[in-house]
TrEMBL record:
Protein name: DUF7796 domain-containing protein
Lineage, opening ranks: Eukaryota, Viridiplantae, Streptophyta, Embryophyta, Tracheophyta
Pfam families membership: DUF7796
InterPro entries: DUF7796
Gene name per UniProt: LOC115711599
Organism: Cannabis sativa (Hemp)
Record has Transmembrane helix as a keyword: yes
Entry keyword set: Membrane, Transmembrane, Transmembrane helix
Segment forming the signal sequence: none
Length: 440
């Protein structure tokens, strides 16, 4: 009989219950849609009170990530602190894990790139073991600067020989866009897979397995540290851009399982053949390796560029290669670079990059991250000064030291390095040093 009264009582109760959440909702929408003009900026206590409450209510039925997103505009500092603390935890975890750093390639400009690799990769993860796989040439003496690397596991410097090409390889690979044809690709693949072999031999010898393998190039100049966020279990991380129709293969990071597949560049060629894949360049075969073996990959921008002595037309158009100024803010994700006085900045970069085919040599350029060189000629006169000005005293000093290295100091440095290396497979220091330095 008193049904309506009951109902209205119920309504009133419900209404009372609804008041606090409603006020919070209004509060949230105000703060969410006007992050810069925070209406509560002078009411810090109210803010924290409301936030504390709304947080506990929301936590009951909104996932914690959603909560973080909603409060991002106002809980800036808190979010930032949490992000930093997550990074620190991740870093601590990485510092406790086993990491192999695989460094491959020729030492041509290692006096410029080496110190940045030591600083931004090896010293960031001082628990990591270094594996160097490189051909012997007149620049190999520059590897003596690695005597300062935190941990040296295995060094192999070998006399390069032609690699016989199989029919399968001739079918699967293309010489197109490779400066030294299919042989050039095979030499490069051999460097990479040879590094994996060094790592696997070392694992067997030492009776453990690595959690992570970082593959990077001798000619990479790093202008920032390798961040913990790039270590993603079960995925292979590569940089975006410079993908030449496939995947950028200038850097890669993954756990042991994904890395074994990513680094098996020669031995997986028959698998690509049986998958019916032909005429691949380095990048497309790299991508095919991962997709046919079902390794998920993702791209993350990384703070390095590949220092190159090659000349490229300027301005680049379509499928041609842009050359970044080494002074670019970055991250350059492995784009080609050289030390130069930038020929193109701001609007010019937007114009030039807009004319490049995106799936090829193109790289991310927004927000003033990229400046371009006119790389149509040799490195400019006085590039040393340009370089030193960009990298600062420490790396500049190392450049000068290596350039002025005497035969005796080179041999002495290698002796120190050999002493610190577990597996050393290279010609005698005397021989390596003599190839690049005259006795004096
Ligand atoms: C909140 O909603 C989700 C579905 O979106 C549900 O699974 C969960 O049980 C709810 N939590 C509470 C505390 O009601
Ligand atoms: C909020 O964070 C962004 C990016 O982290 C930053 O640019 C902005 O200045 C911050 N705002 C306040 C009020 O701290
Ligand atoms: C390696 O590990 C195996 C199994 O745990 C053990 O039997 C062997 O003795 C170890 N060898 C070395 C050199 O530590
Ligand atoms: C790696 O691969 C092996 C065998 O293929 C598998 O047993 C193991 O679970 C994998 N490990 C990870 C971390 O995925
Ligand atoms: C430029 O900066 C904005 C704001 O920090 C960011 O959201 C955007 O992704 C950046 N773009 C590029 C291409 O880096
Ligand atoms: C690039 O440099 C070359 C050689 O210094 C010069 O001849 C050419 O005009 C330059 N190109 C542009 C677009 O500035
Ligand atoms: C190499 O190590 C040994 C023993 O640890 C030491 O006596 C020797 O001086 C070292 N040589 C060099 C060149 O560092």
């Amino acid at each position: 009989m008193n049904f309506t009264k009951k109902l209205s009582n119920l309504d009133r109760r419900n209404f009372l219950i609804l008041i606090p959440p409603l006020s919070i909702l209004i509060f949230i929408s105000i703060s969410f849609f006007s992050p810069s003009t925070n209406p509560f900026s002078s009411f810090a206590p109210i803010r924290s009170f409301l936030l504390g409450r709304s947080n506990s209510i929301l936590n009951n039925n909104v996932s914690s990530t959603a909560t973080a997103t909603i409060f991002l505009p106002m809980r800036n500092e808190t979010v930032e602190i949490r992000r930093r603390s997550r990074t620190r935890m991740k870093k601590d975890e990485l510092l406790r894990s086993r990491i192999a750093v695989c460094l491959v390639g020729g030492a041509r400009r290692f006096e410029l790139t080496g110190p940045s690799i030591v600083e931004n990769i090896l010293k960031q993860y001082p628990n990591s073991d270094l594996f160097l796989h490189s051909p012997l040439d007149k620049n190999a003496f520059k590897f003596s600067l690695l005597k300062t690397a935190p941990k040296l596991a295995s060094v192999r410097i070998f006399e390069p020989k032609p690699i016989p090409e199989t029919e399968t390889e001739a079918r699967v690979l293309t010489a197109h866009n490779s400066p030294n044809g299919i042989q050039g690709l095979l030499q490069y693949f051999n460097l990479v897979e040879g590094c994996l072999t060094l790592i696997q031999n070392y694992q067997n010898q030492q009776n453990f397995t690595y959690d992570w393998i970082i593959r990077t190039r001798v000619d990479g100049y790093w202008n920032g540290p390798l961040h913990p966020k790039n270590f993603i279990p079960g995925h292979y991380t590569v940089p975006p851009g410079s993908s030449y129709g496939g995947l950028n293969d200038r850097f890669g990071l993954g756990d042991l399982n994904t890395s074994v597949i990513a680094l098996s560049r020669l031995s997986l060629i028959p698998k690509l053949d049986s998958a019916g894949l032909h005429q691949l360049n380095s990048e497309t075969s790299f991508k095919a390796q991962l997709t046919t073996q079902r390794v998920p990959f993702l791209t993350k921008r990384l703070p390095f560029c590949v220092v190159s002595d090659r000349k490229y037309d300027f301005p680049p158009v379509g499928f041609s290669v842009p050359v970044a100024a080494l002074s670019s803010r970055g991250p350059l994700s492995g784009a080609k670079c050289r030390p130069c006085t930038a020929a193109c900045r701001g609007g010019c970069v937007a114009e030039v990059m807009g004319r490049l085919y995106k799936g090829w040599s193109w790289t991310e350029w927004g927000n003033g991250t990229l400046e371009l060189c006119n790389a149509s000629e040799e490195w400019e006169k006085g590039w040393e000064k340009v370089f030193d000005g960009v990298v600062g005293e420490k790396f500049g000093g190392e450049r000068k030291r290596v350039e002025g290295l005497s035969l005796k100091n080179c041999v002495d440095d290698f002796e120190v390095m050999i002493n610190r290396t577990v597996v050393w497979e290279a010609p005698l220091p005397e021989k390596i040093c003599r190839m690049g330095l005259k006795a004096h």
